[in-house]
């Protein structure tokens, strides 16, 4: 591993449960927490928001919707969504999403409505 680049195979990373389904998170340590890349499989997503993180969702496969502040938007392969801090969001449907988080994903920056 170089100090100037990092390489990983997202589908080889271990899965973990998250508020949107299951995810494989990469580059958190390698970026010194500045960013992370996730391979997200949507399943039973719960509406939430972040106070710090900005997220980019890029739909790789499947059909469904991305709900942003209560408004549902169609999602299909190559749909992209910019989700800024404070925007309540969730993914709906059978979707595989490439998610980029700036800064890197941090479970303490995840907030749910009562």
TrEMBL record:
Pfam families noted in UniProt: Cupin_2 (PF07883)
SUPFAM superfamilies: RmlC-like cupins
Cupin type-2 domain location: 45-92
InterPro entries reported in the protein's UniProt record: Cupin_2, RmlC-like_jellyroll, RmlC_Cupin_sf
CDD domains the UniProt entry points to: cupin_Pac13-like (cd20295)
Entry protein name: Cupin domain-containing protein
UniProt organism field: Micromonospora parastrephiae
